[in-house]
Amino acid sequence: MEINGIAHVFLTVSDFAACRPFYVRLLGFLGLTQVIDDEHMIYFVGGRTAVGVVPAEEKYSRDRFAQLRSGLHHLCFRARTREDVDEVHRFLVEHGAKVVHPPEEGAWAPGYYSVLFEDPDGIRLEVNFVPGKGLLADAPTS
């Protein structure tokens, strides 16, 4: 068996009012189509995946994201080209997003190139490009 990607990811945010416009702009820019928009959820579909954003329960509404707490570490979107990563960076700067690091090469895989940033809750997001088969280039085929 081989899975066919990730169907969807849901992010729970403590400040839905601040995060909603951030994700509406970002996910629309990334080419995802918004299919749900109400007071309890926004949901976008495209690029063979979907992303939903929901508000935290009231008792968690003052909590901020902590990258090394159990749960999500970060979410990474795969770009088709290095230039797409650069374009996302320009978009983030234009919209005042917190950029953790601008586009740079990394040692994760041959040709790895990414931009790392945060949403208004501090959730880490990344857009990367890896040419060819990345780490699977030298993997044995069976």
**CATH architecture designation:** Roll
How many angstroms does the end-to-end distance come to?
A: 12 Å
Uncertain runs: none
Q: Please report the total strand number as a whole number.
A: 8
Kindly state the percentage of residues in helix.
10-25%
Query: Which shape, going by the Cα principal axes?
Result: globular
What sequence of helices (H) and strands (E) makes up the elements?
EHEEEEHEEE
Count of discrete domains: 1
Strand portion: 25-35%
Structural classification:
alpha/beta
**How would you state the average pLDDT, rounded?**
93
Give a short account of the largest sheet. Answer: 4 strands, mixed
- Number of helical segments with 4 or more residues: 2
- CATH superfamily assignment? 2,3-Dihydroxybiphenyl 1,2-Dioxygenase, domain 1
Task: Provide the CATH topology.
Answer: 2,3-Dihydroxybiphenyl 1,2-Dioxygenase, domain 1
Which CATH top level class fits?
Alpha Beta
Physical arrangement of strands within the biggest beta sheet = 1-4-3-2
**Rg value:** 16 Å
Can you tell me about this structure?
The protein has one domain: 2,3-Dihydroxybiphenyl 1,2-Dioxygenase, domain 1 (Roll), CATH 3.10.180.10. Helix content is 19%, strand content 34%. It has two helices and eight strands. It has a four-stranded mixed sheet with strand order 1-4-3-2, covered by helices on one side. The protein has a four-stranded mixed sheet with strand order 5-8-7-6, with helices on one face. Strand 7 (113-118) and strand 8 (124-129) form a beta hairpin. The two termini are 12 Å apart.
